[in-house]
Specification:
Blueprint (H helix, E strand, L loop, with lengths): L6 H11 L9 H41 L17
Length: 84
Amino acid sequence: MSGFPDPKEAQVRQLLEGPHPPVPTGLAAAAAARGSRLLRRYRALRRFGWAVLFAAAAAFAVWAALTRPWVTPPSGVSPPLEGW
């Protein structure tokens, strides 16, 4: 390690030691209001997503119950008649 101080470290130390600029008076209240607004929006979007997922699952269940896609459709051709 050389004896010269690192210029980046010196800049960081100068920034941390001050002088610090004054903080606006309503900054904390504005940040808290914005944070709560973002949290409400996130919760609403999450609830909407769960509601859409539930509605899609219910629609799929109703469709599957009505059309029964697992049952093979009846054949249009009858088997040959034997034994006469």
